[in-house]
Design a protein that fits this description.
29% strand, 21 strands, single chain, alpha+beta, seven-stranded antiparallel sheet, eight-stranded antiparallel sheet
Length: 497
């Protein structure tokens, strides 16, 4: 699972990666490309399609009788992979293990970023950006360093002209989607949150990176196990949290470890810059663990859930192994904002603009704010967004106002949440709001725009009645100020779990 330093395999099946489409898979299935285990081979094992390979293999490309077509020998075969962990790609490994004489001549890797859950057809259609390429030899793992790392949710492997590839490893930095954490706790150490193993005392039997994999371990080799210590002391693993936060529950899972589970575990919080330079502080005191069991440790077990940490050392005494580590908690607002902003900076411009258009529907404004990336922090982004709102011309202001529903009649989305206070109005109040909206629109030519979040229905109605007395010039300035306030709150809310 691990890459170099902070890098992990973003595409591996164990982390949620999958192959969504391929041009051909006549001889061996495309899904093998992201299999977690290393490729294997058993010679002289034949199926109805020939020798069985642990990889992806396409048919030999041939010219069709009537001219160029799907099997045009000048073309490429390809496979499209959904990254289980969207992130910035730094290194690619194209492994042709056991493919010798039936390997491709060369390979190229392309990337793209798509928000949401697109269908295979939507992904395949592109547009794609080239990432890297390499000539290929048979039965060789080709490591390619990416000269210009790019963010991606999907990659496309193109092979020329045809043949077999055993594995594709896509190594890079995870860009967690902080928006998914709203209202729930999160495993701060998980790969999906950006967690990673920094170092470990021993990797003799299996790698410590397995501890952070999603799901439950399938067997003992799917966890972390050290050699038997003969010199005293203890083994340990250092884990960097995806974001700094407070840990409320620790899970140490020794499932499958029967005669080789540790006797005790101890957790030490290592607070770096993201946690205010905390230094080393005991997070969980030395605590006995049992073989082949899932252990949950909280405050009653001595866990200090008031500490803000961004790294944790797990000490196992004296040695042994366990299957999974979970550090459930909540990120600090500052750490969540920093993680969200980092993802926003890495997005392609067109995707980042769509994110901002969900906060304010003025396209030129969104494009200008995106063009100003990177921002030092969330406050800097909000300041730039606010300045842009206050400087909107009439066309931009009209586009922004068109994205806001009438107060009292939200159409879902953020407007519905922001206008929750309207529900407190009685029947007479709702009638007055409807009549006031109509009068306002007749007077000023657009919807009554007001920062509704945190305000009661009575407050919104009183503000409406007050603003109906404004001159158009004064009201225009109030509208810009309210639009800036609404937009700032929405941007801040993007990355506030």
């Amino acid at each position: 699972m691990s890459g170099s330093g902070a890098w992990v395999d973003l595409a591996v099946r164990a982390a949620g990666g999958g192959v969504v489409a391929a041009s051909d898979e006549t001889f061996a299935e495309k899904e093998n490309l992201v299999t977690t285990a290393a490729p294997t081979h058993a010679a002289h094992t034949f199926g109805h399609k020939g020798q069985i390979y642990d990889g992806w293999e396409t048919r030999r490309r041939r010219a069709v009788p009537d001219g160029p077509g799907p099997m045009d020998p000048a073309g490429d075969d390809w496979a499209v992979i959904r990254l289980g962990l969207p992130g910035i790609v730094h290194r690619v490994v194209v492994d042709t293990a056991f493919f010798d004489g039936n390997h491709p001549v060369s390979a190229e890797v392309d990337v793209r970023w798509i928000e949401g859950h697109p269908s295979p057809a939507e992904v395949v259609d592109g547009p794609w950006e080239p990432l890297c390429g390499t000539p290929l030899q048979g039965d060789t793992a080709h490591t390619v360093e990416v000269e210009h790392p790019r963010a991606a949710t999907h990659v496309r492997l193109r092979i020329h002209p045809d043949g077999g590839v055993a594995r594709l490893r896509v190594l890079g930095e995870v860009l967690p989607d902080v928006r998914r954490w709203r209202g729930i706790g999160v495993d701060l150490a998980s790969l999906a949150a950006g967690g990673r193993v920094l170092d470990a005392s021993n990797r003799h039997y299996s790698p410590p990176e397995n501890l952070l994999l999603p799901g439950t371990a399938g067997h003992m080799g799917d966890g972390w196990e050290t050699r038997r210590r003969r010199e005293g002391g203890f083994d340990w693993v250092d884990v960097a949290l995806g974001v700094a936060g407070r840990v409320h529950q620790v899970v140490v899972d020794t499932t499958h470890f029967v005669g080789n589970a540790p006797g005790t575990v101890r957790l030490v919080g290592l607070g770096g810059p993201g946690a205010g330079g905390l230094g080393e502080v005991e997070l969980l005191p030395e605590t006995p663990v049992q073989p082949d069991a899932e252990h949950w440790f909280g405050v009653p077990d001595g866990l200090d859930d008031g500490l803000v940490v961004d790294r944790v050392r797990v000490e196992v005494r004296p040695d042994g192994g366990f299957a999974r580590l979970r550090l459930f908690g909540r990120p600090t607002p500052e750490a969540a904002a920093a993680a969200g902003l980092r993802r926003f900076h890495a997005m392609p411009s067109v995707v980042a603009e769509q994110v901002l258009l969900g906060c304010c529907s003025a396209p030129d404004w969104a494009a200008a704010v995106v063009a100003g990336r990177p921002y030092a922090d969330l406050d800097a982004l909000v300041a730039a967004a606010t300045a842009g709102i206050l400087a909107l011309d009439e066309k931009g202001l009209a586009a922004a106002l068109a994205g806001h529903a009438r107060v009292g009649a939200p159409e879902g989305g953020p407007g519905a949440r922001e206008q929750a206070g309207v529900a407190g109005l009685d029947e007479a109040g709702l009638r007055a709001l409807t009549e006031g909206n109509r009068a306002y629109e007749e007077r000023f030519g657009h919807v009554y725009l007001v920062r509704a979040a945190g305000r009661s229905g009575e407050e919104l109605l009183a503000l409406l009645e007050d603003r109906l007395r404004h001159d158009p010039e004064i009201e225009a300035e109030v509208v810009r100020a309210q639009l800036a306030e609404i937009t700032a709150l929405r941007i801040e809310g993007l990355w506030t779990p």
